[in-house]
Amino acid sequence: MAAATPTPSVAVLIDRHQETLDRALAAIDSRDYWSPYPEIAKAYGETGPADGKAAFEALLGQVFPIEGQPGNGDLVAGEASPFGIELGVSYPHAETDALFAALEAARPAWAAAGPAARAAVCLEILGRINARSHEFAQAVMHTTGQAYGMAFQAGGPHAQDRGLEAVAYAFREQTRLPQSAGWTKPQGKRDPLSMVKEFTVVPRGTALLIGCNTFPTWNGYPGLFASLATGNGVLVKPHPRAVLPLALTVRIAREVLAEAGFDPNLVCLAAEHEGGTVAATLAVRPEVKLIDYTGSTGFGDWLEDNARQAQVYTEKAGVNTVVIDSTDNYRGMLNNLAFALSLYSGQMCTTPQNLLVPRTGIRTDEGSKSYDEVVADLSGAISGLLGDDARAAQILGAVVNPGVLQRSVAAAGGEFGELALAPRVVESPEFPAATIRTPALVKVDADKPDDRTAFLGECFGPVAFAVAVESTEAAVELLRRTVSEQGAMTAGGYTVDDAVEAAMVAACLDAGVSLSLNLTGGVFVNQTAAFSDLHGTGANPAANSAYCDGAFVANRFRTVEIRRHV
Q: What whole-number distance in Å separates Cα of residue 553 and Cα of residue 119?
């Protein structure tokens, strides 16, 4: 059917957000910097941080109701702040069959609304989330362990950017074909054949978003808004340790949907206890046609193998690698790498893990540097960056889960190899109970089997490996092989040699990983910008999709043709 005539409230939203949508569409073409959501905290008012903290604190120790969502009366709780404060928020534990019945009932009117109406409603949801960015920052901070500055930016405006980017791509793909077209085929002396052909976007069905612990909004919003903008209902299943940011998102989405005349059960929350298996149960329901997942390789592979009725988008584990051949800004390189390794305690899917350095050393603007000198100087740069505890806490955040802490302890005990830089405990002046560790830097040799076992698997968290390799050529080949076999979300390279740069580029194109070259300033390998950078490629084992490109949205709907003779 053709898109329904917009209701007055939807028409208002279309008019309100048309300029933002137009600019987002232009941005994904130009790939230049653009964002409608300020990343500066003061842009949200002088009292914004205090108001956001007060709103967050008002949620603590309370039941978080989802008005109008079917439930069985039971409650789910268990989130704990990595910074050591009590959260005590509990959520409705919905009954699965009732949830799917509500989602299925809500879908038809949304599917009939059309791409423009859906985009406008999505942008209204994002706008209201943006207005509460400081509240979201507190929620992200105290469920993920991100320091406040990072939680505000990555969990707020940058996540909202990624959501808007998905809406823009979704709108473009849905409107690529005309709604109707005339077709006339000449028949010589006979009358021409004439037909009218209509092309209707038909959503896939219900989408399941399986949230992650570290970046619930940044990793969650692309899939959430891509599915919603293409006409699908969304069941949001947060990570048990990071429910609050997505629960707030669901509540706001439901409010906007209801105000716009749609059934709020188009977006529902499925909270579960720690250790639960509801994600696996939900993933194979016949109603679920789309799944977005960020997390471990094991469960990601299981989803791809078992949720056969759904289109599955995964971001899994990988081994991010940097090749260090030469540099014309040695201090800039060291400082850039030190920050990249330290940010959020290395708990980012994009953080570099393996630094490949030739045993014979590298050329720099300060003369030749041996492998041992590079490792020692990088250790010094990390120690200098994190020498003051108050500053270190703002960069490192807190350790998100016991597994990360165990890996830090193992590195400190020499289990992964010779320590070039031991991790140390950081005391936060603001949060004395926070668990904070500086990065460990481990010296390993690419030709030693025991060392290869240590550095060729993902070691998520504040542990990095300085890998001695035979030559730059060997480093480039190890980069290519690591990405092809283990996967990676990012790769980096430092060289002043055109031939080496060409070899790095060729290796990354072959293995399917995006490459950052010679970063020495305020851009880091583990950061990507919406509307410009692609997050992942979908071309290596670490992820089967990218935030955000046409492929990420186009298979969330199909186009059905109706044709008739004139």
A: 13
| Cβ(106)–Cβ(277) below 8 Å | no
Phi and psi at residue 182, to the nearest 5°: -90, 145
| C-alpha–C-alpha distance, residues 156 and 351, integer Å | 20
CB-side neighbour CA atoms (13 Å) of 182: 5
Residue 403, token pair as written in the block: 């597994």
What span, in angstroms and rounded, lies between the C-alpha atoms of 386 and 446? Answer: 28
**Residues 436, 396: contact at Cβ < 8 Å?**
yes
Chain centroid to CA 323: how far? 25
- Helix 48-59 with 133-144: angle, nearest 10 deg: 50
Contacts of 224 (CB under 8 A, 6+ apart): 163, 207, 209, 234, 236, 249, 292
Beta sheet of 233-237, edge-to-edge order: 267-269, 233-237, 206-210, 288-294, 311-315
The C-alpha R_g of the chain, in whole angstroms, comes to 25
* Residues 76 and 90 sit within 8 Å (Cβ to Cβ): yes
Cβ within 8 Å of residue 493, ≥6 positions away: 322, 323, 324, 325, 500, 501, 504, 515, 516, 517, 518
State phi, psi for 291 to the nearest 5 degrees: -135, 130
Nearest to 125 by CA among 75, 167, 91, 154: 167
Q: Which two tokens stand for residue 127?
A: 């706008």
Q: Within a 10 A sphere around the Cβ of 519, how many other Cβ atoms?
A: 21
- Mean residue pLDDT of the chain comes to 96
- Helix, strand or coil, per DSSP, at residue 543: strand
pLDDT reported for residue 493? 98
DSSP state of 362: B
Residues 6+ apart with CB under 8 A from 395: 147, 339, 342, 343, 385, 386
Low-confidence ranges of the chain (pLDDT < 50): 1
Cα separation, 79 vs 245, whole angstroms: 11
Q: Please say whether the beta carbons of 416 and 463 come within 8 A.
A: yes
Closest CA to 4 of 123, 137, 113, 151: 113
In whole angstroms, what separates CA 127 from the centre of its chain?
19
**Alpha-carbon gap, residue 92 to 267, rounded angstroms:** 14
Say how far residue 168 (Cα) sits from the centre of its chain: 17
Buried b (16+ CB within 10 A) or exposed e, 244-263: bbbbbbbbbbbebbeebebb
Neighbours of 457 (CB within 10 A): 12
> For position 1, what pLDDT does the model report?
45
Which is it for strands 75-76 and 91-92: parallel, antiparallel or unpaired?
antiparallel
DSSP code of 70? -
Q: Which amino acid is at 262?
A: F
Instruction: Please list, in sequence order, all residues whose beta carbon lies within 8 angstroms of the beta carbon of residue 422, skipping any fewer than 6 positions away.
Output: 412, 440
| Listed residue (312, 309, 234, 246) closest to 91, CA to CA | 246
The residue written with tokens 């404060």 in the block is: 85
For the chain, counts of helices (H) and of strands (E): 19, 17
Instruction: Please tell me the distance from the alpha carbon of residue 407 to that of residue 244, in angstroms, as a whole number.
Output: 27
**Cβ–Cβ < 8 Å for 165, 531:** yes
